[in-house]
Amino acid sequence: MVTIQTENFSLEQIWQSGQCFRMNQTEKAVENFPKGQATDSGTGRGYEIIAGQRYLEAFSLGSKCMLSCNGEEYESFWKGYFDLENNYGSYISCIDPEDEYLLSAARLGWGIRILKQDLWETLVSFLISQQNNIVRIRRCISNICNQYGEKKVSGRGKEYYAFPGPEALAGLHEDALMECNLGYRSKYVVRAAKSVVSGETDLSRIGGMGYQDAKAELLKLFGVGEKVAECICLFALHHLEAFPVDTHISQALGKHYKKGFPQKRYQGIQGVMQQYIFYYELHGAREKD
To answer: So what CATH class is 119-235?
Structure first.
């Protein structure tokens, strides 16, 4: 078990931020952890996170977070996955003090971090995300994993399904994933799998590219448009200059940034600001109107 205490880190806000779709809130209590791991009383909030082949249980108690992994796995994977090495307080301090809207957004979404997710999983997830909502996206991905992913058992005895690699999907008929409720998006995912397996698309090469080159390569894939490519660049490749624009962001920009978002001021961290705006539009702005 690992216990961490980090500022600007909220599992709940990350869960609600629309970045990942295999993170779920649970009813499990902190007391399920071995005695001595928690020094505070109370049940806290529990989460299950499946990232590629890995499974994690995490619990929040105030500013503390307990993770069901050992120190080596935390240092080699989860610390980077949650981007805990970067100081998000410094990002918030960069916000224009006269920009009340963005300040409000950052105050509400103070604990959001940009996750470093697997490129293949993120590609499939955001192909599915088109014209879809978060609840349905989660269900679609769960269906795919249960049908085509490898069954695994965590160190705590939890059965789960790993995310299926491209090899598991490349041999399918283009409409096969309709059975997993993907609808027309089935062909996007299957064609992407075929492209990766055939070598036409080299994900490892894309992973080593800069933002603009990576985005250009992603746009070559069938079904990948501007917004999806930006999401993949931000949430998998960790290009923090990416700035995905969906309906929520577009409406916010039209209302608060009629001359355009000040990209130059936030050069290199535009994607962090995008997440504050996105979260605020989903969970805070409407309450203020």
So the answer is: mainly alpha
